[in-house]
Write a structure and sequence with these properties.
Shape: elongated
Oligomer: single chain
Number of helices: 12
Low-confidence stretches: none
Strand content: 5-15%
Order of helices and strands: EHEHEHEHEHEEEHEHHHHHH
Radius of gyration: 21 Å
CATH superfamily of the largest domain: NAD(P)-binding Rossmann-like Domain
Strand order of the largest sheet: 3-2-1-4-5-6
Structural class: alpha/beta
CATH architecture of the largest domain: 3-Layer(aba) Sandwich
Mean pLDDT: 94
Length: 290
C-alpha cells in the first residue's frame, strides 16, 4: 500500500494505541497524531513513542491527515464526529473501531453527511480486559478478524485504504452488513461479557464473597476474566445493541432452562450429551473447523 503521511487517532487507548504501534511496525505511516480527553494518557502515549504528537487542537491535528481512526467508546462517537466534521479535508478517509455498527452509522449519517463517502465503519475483533495506552500491543491484531461494513455510497478507494491498513497490521479483513455484524457480535462478544459481569457481581454480593474468591480456581478466573474490561465501554456497547442483546439473553435463558430441567430430573445421560455437544463444538472452533 502507499505509505500514509499522517494518521490521526481519536482515543489512544488499547485499541487506538495498538493500531498506532502496529501501523508503525509495518512501516505504513510517517506521522501519528493522537487526540484524546485524557491529557495524562496522551502524554504517556507520546513519551512511550506510540504517537509522534499529542494534540488538543482538532483543526491542527486534522490538517493534512490521510486517515482518521475514531477509537473511543461508542457513545462518544457523535461527539468526535461533530468535532472533526468542519476540519476534514477532501483526501481524508475516516474509519472507526466501534463494537457496534448500526448506531455508529446512524450518527455518521447525521454528523458526517458531507463526508459520508469517505467513512468506512470497521470493528477489530480483538482486545483485552486492560485499558489505556499502557495496554497497547503492536501485535494485538495479528491474525485477528476485522469486519468492515461499507455503506452503499462509500468510495471504493476509501474501502481500499482502510482494508490495506488493517491488513498491514496483520488482520484478516471481511465485509458484512451492519445488521449482521451486530447480530453476530451480540452472541459471541456482548453476551459473554454480560454473563461474566453478572457472575462476578453475584459472587461479590454474596455474604461469603471473600471466602468464595479466596478459593476461586482457574475456571472461575478464566470465565470472569473479561469482567475486568472497561465498564464505560461495555455500558455503551450493551445499550447501543440492546435489542439484539436482549434476544440473545433470552436464548441463553432458554438454554439454562433446558439444563435446569435435566438437572432437576436427575437426567445424567441428557446432561452428558449436552456437555459433549458443547465440548465438540468448542473443539471444532479451536481447531478452525467450525
Amino acid at each position: 500500500m502507499t505509505k500514509l503521511k499522517k494518521l490521526v487517532i481519536f482515543g489512544v487507548g488499547l485499541i487506538g494505541g495498538s493500531f498506532a504501534l502496529a501501523a508503525r511496525k509495518a512501516g505504513i505511516v510517517d506521522r501519528i497524531v493522537g487526540v484524546g480527553r485524557n491529557p495524562e494518557n496522551l502524554n504517556r502515549a507520546l513519551a512511550s513513542g506510540v504517537i509522534d504528537e499529542a494534540s488538543h487542537d482538532v483543526a491542527s491535528a486534522l490538517k493534512g491527515a490521510e486517515l482518521v481512526l475514531i477509537a473511543v467508546p461508542v457513545a462518544q462517537t457523535s461527539r468526535v464526529m461533530t468535532q472533526i466534521e468542519p476540519h476534514l479535508e477532501a483526501q481524508t478517509v475516516i474509519t472507526d473501531a466501534g463494537s457496534t455498527k448500526q448506531d455508529v452509522l446512524a450518527v455518521a449519517y447525521t454528523y458526517l453527511a458531507r463526508h459520508i463517502s469517505r467513512f468506512v465503519p470497521a470493528h477489530p475483533i480483538a482486545g483485552a480486559e486492560q485499558s489505556g495506552v499502557g495496554a497497547a500491543n503492536g501485535g494485538l491484531y495479528q491474525d485477528r478478524n476485522v469486519v468492515i461494513t461499507p455503506l452503499p455510497q462509500t468510495d471504493p478507494r476509501a474501502v481500499e485504504v482502510v482494508t490495506a491498513v488493517w491488513q498491514a497490521c496483520g488482520a484478516r479483513v471481511s465485509r458484512m452488513t451492519p445488521e449482521k455484524h451486530d447480530e453476530i457480535l451480540a452472541t459471541i462478544s456482548h453476551l459473554p461479557h454480560v454473563l461474566a459481569y453478572a457472575l462476578m457481581d453475584e459472587v461479590a454480593n454474596s455474604s461469603n464473597a471473600e471466602e468464595l474468591m479466596f478459593y476461586a480456581g482457574t475456571g472461575f478466573r478464566d470465565f470472569t476474566r473479561i469482567a475486568g474490561s472497561l465498564p464505560e465501554m461495555w455500558r455503551d456497547i450493551c445499550l447501543a445493541n440492546r435489542e439484539t442483546l436482549l434476544r440473545q439473553m433470552e436464548a441463553y435463558e432458554a438454554e439454562l432452562g433446558k439444563m435446569r430441567k435435566l438437572l432437576a430430573d436427575g437426567d445424567g445421560p441428557g446432561l452428558e450429551q449436552l456437555f459433549t455437544n458443547a465440548r465438540n463444538a468448542r473443539n471444532r472452533m479451536v481447531e478452525g473447523k467450525a
